[in-house]
Amino acid sequence: MEETQQQLLAAIFPLATALPQLGLAVQKAVQNDAAARGAAAIEEDEEAHDAEEDGEEVHDAEAAEEAAAADASRSLGPRAAGAVAKYRELAAQVSSAMDDLACSRALHIREEDLGTLCTAVIGQVWDAASKEEDSFWASLEAAIVSAVDEFEQRQRFQQAESAEIASAVEAAAHAQRLLLTDAAASALHQRVAAAMRRGESLEQAVSAAVREWHKQMVRKQVQQTVWDSSGNSTRRVTGMVRFMPFKHTDSGRFDYELLVCVFSALPFGSLGELARVCKRWRSVAADPAWKPELVAYAWGPAALTGLSSACPRPKLLELSLTLCIVHIACADAATFVVTEAGDVWFWGRSWLGEEEPVCSTPTRISELRDVVSVTTTPSGYFHGRARVADGGGGYSCAAITHDGGLYTWGANVAGQLLQSHGLDVWVPRPKRISVPFRNAEGTDFVWRPASERVLHVACGLRYLAICIQRPGGSSAVLSCGSFCSSDPHRLHEWPELEGVALRQLTGGSFHCCALSTRGEVYTFGDEKGQDQANGNLLGFSRQLGQYRVPIHFAGAVAPRRLETEGLGPVAEVSCSTYSTLAITVDGRAFTWGDADGDALGHTHRPCNEPHWLRSIRFQRVAHGSLAYTNGAVASDEGRVFVWGGNMWEGGIAEGRASRGPTEIKWSGVPSCYRCTSVALGHKHGFLVFRKQP
After folding, report:
1. I need a labelling partner for 677 at 20 to 30 A (CA). Which of 46, 126, 266, 585 fits?
2. Where do the structural domains in the chain lie, given as residue ranges?
3. Which residue has the higher pLDDT, 230 or 296?
């Protein structure tokens, strides 16, 4: 009989066995009801339960669960049914209250985590449920707040550790020129985390994991012998070489290789039609082995996309089939791409201003070699004025080489490019910076390019910010130029960021964001910008504490860490002229700054601090980009959402019915690819796709 009662408990509600208080309460009620009803009723209950266990099929899962609960409640009797009803009611109230509290804190609690937290909270207050109502609700509220607090602290610690691991893996791969897919980065992350749990240091774990991954990749890329120039079919199917390549005798193999040669010369958009011809063609068209690891799609005007004609919907960038593009940077009306070989290609409006001819076809910049990243003045609006004050529409550019060298070129109206050309002039071509720089007092050197390599660089409208590595291994952040209306300053080190290891340095036109390897965001520069933004560019809410951030140097606010409730560790930051986007480690998107034209993707105004985009709360955001009043993000499932573009010259996202994030739906990408990043200019953009594992 006791065994039957336990089975009934499990049938009523799975969590009954996980919550001792509920199990004991229902068990006691079962015993009382059983004694009252007599042995005959118990036998009928057992027979009914056995019949149910023998396998009555119910097609509707929800109806089956409700029917089972109702039957179990009737079998257990009124006392047991009351205990179960009490638990269900309490669980629903706790779940709703906990979800509301999480939303108010910009937290996203997964369904399975919410169930675990509910069970823990009910376990604390179950005994008090039969006591005075006021004391019960007070204890319930305290238990819910305590559970959410503990969950948030635990999540923040785990996410900070995750951000640090991801940053270390990214840096190690970057140093060895390895192109990691999202799947490979995730696998390496798991290996490193497991090694750290075994007691290894972060550096040792990352070094060993990347070295082993690289070794496996080399083994997978075994070259064929001269007797057999065909592909290795085992590697094609599984990604692994399981035998030595010898002469292939299968006559059908030539057919496959011939189809691969033909298909690789055709547009990706035609593969769907080719796959309908026959089973053999469908097999070749679906095979990801012969397709490039990474492809890019562009949309916008012809002169800006690198294509021969304008494309209102994303279209394959042919350059990405011949060159392995690893990085894309968009200026106002221009594009720079960095290839795996370290070359830089450019097209669009010249950095020397509107008087220069527009370069409509991709052209390699001959001065730049062995480059790992490129950045430009962010795409931004200035209410009808020239893109750069007195600059005729030009912009500033900077590139970092693999050995830590820094090249700058373009608009130098505040002397921010660190070249010896003086003020209010152009730097016509990329030039490496080699001379050391002294501080404002002239008493000491703040940067020696010969011995201190550049790790990150950010370009604003009239300033340049760099993160350098000192000989001892520590880092420092310096800036030069003018953040807004103040006089230009010489190269200055910000002591607030001394020794803070950075993962990213990103510039808006008037402010700058520094992202640490542990996911902390520091902002500095001007709070409002040249046109007085309707939100604080630095993310400091004056409504919280009614404080005024002190000016620290040359009219700029010193670096300060963002501590907005619910933000958590950040994985990526993107800036436009008057707005900023931060993507957290757990895939949430936050924006702040100027809200004109729905640039922030939400209706919260004024937006002085990071605000969660709740409309895409059920998407795990992986990458994002901002330009003008436009924004876009890509989820880890490859879905792309855009917003904004409703004011100040519009942009790539204008013309939509919705004011919030709207999904871009289009076809033409093979099923083996998934969108992993987005890059935006004013009226052009790019979607980058990688092959799925």
Report:
1. 266
2. 2-130, 155-220, 233-286
3. 296
